[in-house]
Amino acid sequence: MKGYAGKLLRVNLSDGKVSKEEIPDSTQRDFLGGRGFAIKLLWDEVKHIDPLSEKNKIIFSTGPLSGQLLPSSGKMVIASKSPLTGGYGDGNIGTMASVHLRKAGYDVVVVEGKSEKPCTLLIEDENVKMVESSELWGKDTFEAQDLLEKKHGKNSGILLIGPGGENLIPISTVMSQRGRAGGRPGMGAVMGSKHLKAIVIKGTGNISNFDDSRLRELGKKGHEEIKAKENLDFWMRQGTMQAFDWCNENGCLPTYNFKEGVFEFSKEMDGYILEKLHVGRKGCPMCSMQCGHVIKDSEDRQAELDYENVGMLGPNIGLKSLPHVALLNRMADEWGLDTISLGSGIGFLMEASERGLIKEKIGWGDFEAARTLVQEIGKGEGTGALVSKGVKAASEAIGRGSHRWAMHVKGLEISAYNCHGCPGMALSFGTSPIGASHKDAWIIAWEISTDRFSYNKEKVQKLIEFQRIRGGFFESATVCRLPWVEVSFGLHWYPEYLEAITGNRMTWEDLYQIGDRIYNLIRAYWKREIPHFGRTWDYPPDRWFEDPHSQGKMKGVKIDREKYEEMLSYYYELRGWDENGIPLKETLDRLGLKEVSKEMMG
Fold first, then answer.
1. How does pLDDT run across 469-481, given as a tens digit for each residue?
2. In a domain, 501, yes or no
3. All residues at 6 or more sequence positions from 571 whose CB lies less than 8 Å from its CB, including other chains
């Protein structure tokens, strides 16, 4: 099919074997790319294994829009069986590696096995080899990036892990370009388990599209539309940090381990403070609206910030200084640790200390303690070891009711939106296919602007629509969702792009069906890998049901458990799943997943 290389590169690190395989047209048609390719491969090839064993596989997957001259198209998906959750795990990352992989003639890289010594996988068009990299092992991601760039060129596509991944910390990510991160559910640990320090990609070819001239024209017009958007100026000044003040005003800022929705020091660290401290911007390839805003941290070094890491490493742990938050964020990037899970883990420890459940005294807003904890978590040592495997594991270890305020779903820590007063967003976190991630259905703004406290069917329908677009299409195309989300870039562009790329005319209904196919296969994967998986895995933490806010305009607010259950049941009905949240045979069959239904029912 045009627009795809149609090639999968498979590398076995145990024996050094490299193979290049055809990707069937049916897979391209039915799963689109990115996340779709990843779950298809994991379903077919990764069954009932330890995520940190050499039998696991890590997948680097692009889509038909990846690497094209289109708005914000420099993305790829990194996926594997998750060492943090035990189920399907993935994350997207903006990186030159995506562009180079397409130019090298591959849509997907599958890495399996385990190298005897630390290594780098070097992909230069047809030439693929493993290079021993013991000298890089132990170096942080910034140091290693510098050394690899000196050796292979600054324009190379580089994916790598830090000491967190090397130490098999389940909240470790894959990093690129000194601040780009992807793979929250422990993709860095999977690379570390394989002794794979880095992948370097250098491609020199071209992507073969159906109508290149038409695609160039559409790409140019798309960029022009974004540049003409009325709200682009404010976006360029604050990026995702514009959400900080908005969340505080609406009582959904994660504060003191999600106990509260407002932060008394919010005006000391919001998007307007970011503007004053601003020294630069960073973005992914082909991006015309960069989201990475750079300030000087408290050590006078540059650090990249966005809303999620500020929310989780700021108010969630009671820290009120943006330069201090920036330093913690830079450390996390150097160690290759997910900032959302890191902030949640530190907040968990602070609350555990406050409640006397651990002997260490760690007060809210204690910057020096937080700084020490980042290193301890990255090493899996000291007090930080308790949360280095995630807050779910930490709560199971200390017990005494701590599960009530361990802020996760399916083992993945909740990103920076407190949902005491947002039942639709709570359901979004509950039903996200990787755990509590906002990327699949950021419904909170729509919810607050309509009927915030309702539990109605329209809200559930809107949630599924957003999942189909965000988690189904954007994660598989693979392209950034922010132009659509933040500056209202028209969704109508994307079928036009796909037609110029592939020659196939697709409607949004066609793309919705692909999204549904992907979501159902991911759901089946969870059930196959975790036999007791079911309805209770879609519940947000008890805190949102039982501990109402005590401050702000949301004082006294919490989610109604019985009404949440009703929403969840309706969600299952719309999805074609049973009351335990498992896809029905007729649903799988209708979506062309008959072999999956046979395995599930057999």
1. 999 999 999 999 9
2. no
3. 427, 431, 460, 463, 464
